Structure formats: C-alpha cells, structure tokens
Amino acid sequence: MNNRAPANKRYQPTEYEHAANCATHALWIIPSIMGGVLLYFLSNDQWEETSAWLYGAGLSSLFTISTAFHIITWKKSHLRSVEHCFHMCDRIVIYFFIAASYTPWLTLRELGPWAAHMRWVVWVMASGGTTYVFFFHERYKVIELVCYTAMGVFPALVVLSMTDRAGLYELLVGGGCYVLGMVFFKSDGVVPFAHAIWHLFVAMGAGIHYYAIWKYLYTPVNQQTSTAR
Length: 229
What we know:
Blueprint: H1 15-26, H2 29-42, H3 46-75, H4 80-108, H5 118-136, H6 141-159, H7 168-185, H8 194-218, H9 220-223
Helix pairs in contact: 1-3, 1-8, 2-3, 3-4, 4-5, 4-6, 4-8, 5-6, 7-8
C-alpha cells in the first residue's frame, strides 16, 4: 500500500490495490443483474414487480458504477473530468442503493399509517444525498459518512416495527457487514487493500439482504403473507 493521503486528498492505491478494487465489485455485476431479473419473474403483482425492478436496478448499479469508477481511476492518465464525474456517481449510487434495498420491505410488508410514509421518505433522503454530493463532493468526508450511516439506520427503525418479523435476523446481519466494512472504508493507507476489503463486506451485506428478500418476500409461501400497499 501507499502512504495515507492528507485529509483534503484521495488515497492513491497501488497497482495491486487498483486491480483488487475493480475485481471485488466486477465479480458481482452479472449475479446482481440476474438476481433482479429472478425477483421480477417471481413477482405476482405490480407492487412486487416495481419493488423487484427498483431493488435490482439499485443493486446492479452499485456494482457496475463502482467497477467503472475504479477502472477509470486505474487507467485514467488524462481523464480527470471523467474520473471526477464517475466518482460523484459512485457516491450518489450508494444513497439510491440504500433506498432500493429498503423498498421491498417497505412496500411488500404491512406497515402502520405513520411507518408507511417511509416508503417515499427513503427516496427523498436519497435525493437529498444526491444534492449534497453535487454541492459538497469530498469536501466534508465525515459528514458524508454520517449521512450514509443515518440513511442506513433510520428506515431500519420502521422495518423493525413490522408485525411480521421474518427476515429481520438476516437484515441485522447484513447491516452488521456494512457497519464492520466501514472500518476498512476509512483505512486506506493504514490497512493494505482496505478498500477492496470494504468491497467484500459490501458484497456480503448485499448478498445476505438479497437472500432475505428472495426467501421472505418472493418465495410462494411467504408471498401469501405480504399484504402491503
């Protein structure tokens, strides 16, 4: 690994770290697309179809844009403006991925009158995060991390209040993967391959959450108990 970057600059990975950063998310592009398609074909109504489409789009976009950004960063040389654009997209897609990950639970599970508003609040939060990136990209890194954490935790309070608790264990374990991975997200220059390790935690968290959505919301037995809307 290289030396840790100053607070106002990005860490510059080694060639091996660049390769690892690309590979650890590129491996999941096709599986994430196939996973979204599978949920779509398992859908029985328009709400399940919409949830599957949004979730699949968020999941596959996360891995695709992340991979594209890291490839451009690795081979950039003179593509500074393109790299900056993809870096912003890489940050923005995280907000929409979080919203998309909650959408099946908030849409296909029965919620109380107040909690049901979270179905659209998560997308407002994602839009707010996008605005923040446009105006303050990489300017206040700690605030950015707090925003991601808040958006990841706040909707969970609604999900935990659902009458049907099936799948909550997987949601907590997957969320734990993201939280543990954030330690490595901020450890470039301290831990070798820190960002690639972060990618692996993201992949694990996403995989566990996908399994929970597939098993508890889209399998025939559990679809009968999904009474949202």
